[in-house]
Amino acid sequence: MKAIIEIPRGDDRRRHMKYDKSGFIDLGPTKDVIPINDGVMPINYGYIKDTLNVGEGDEIDVLIFSEQVLSVGQEIDIWPIALIRRADGDDKVVAIDDSVKNIKNWEDVKKEERELIEKFFSYHHKFITIENKEEAVKYVEEGYRQYLSK
User: Domain boundaries in the chain?
Assistant: First the structure.
């Protein structure tokens, strides 16, 4: 499956792809909305192409572990490893790319890194649960079906 990077790891700007896919909107400093980690993105953030999260009405969001330096707008191949369910329905798939060899599931991520990601992405809307790889894959497959049926 393919993902598009909106905010690379280490970036401090909030960016979102325009709904007509004509480019990115810069929504300002992340720390104005999420002060955790001084607003610096702790993981690559983007969306999975050709999917629909019906709870949010937008593509499925994805958090991507990568050993590469990724950039805004870059398209990469990903493999889900977990699914973060949030109270607001804006769930997040957690994935890896080809460069990651030592992470196969959420528990393989270093504890400190997991805790930072959990704090960062639950700042406004609390996590309900973190589900396994199989549930993440089912979630994305459903997102593809929803996208095709719209």
Answer: 2-149
Nearest CA among 78, 109, 93 for reference residue 1: 78
* Bridge partners of residue 44, in order along the sequence: 64
pLDDT (tens digit, 9 = 90+) per residue, 90-131? Answer: 999 999 999 999 999 999 999 999 999 999 999 988 899 999
- Could you tell me which of 143, 150, 130, 148 has the C-alpha nearest to residue 48? 143
Q: DSSP E strands: which ranges in the chain?
A: 2-7, 13-17, 24-29, 44-53, 58-65, 75-77, 79-86, 92-96, 127-131
State the pTM of this model. Answer: 0.95
Superfamily, domain 2-149: Inorganic pyrophosphatase (3.90.80.10)
User: Among 60, 36, 32, which Cα is nearest to 46's?
Assistant: 60
**Cβ pair 85, 125 in contact under 8 A:** no
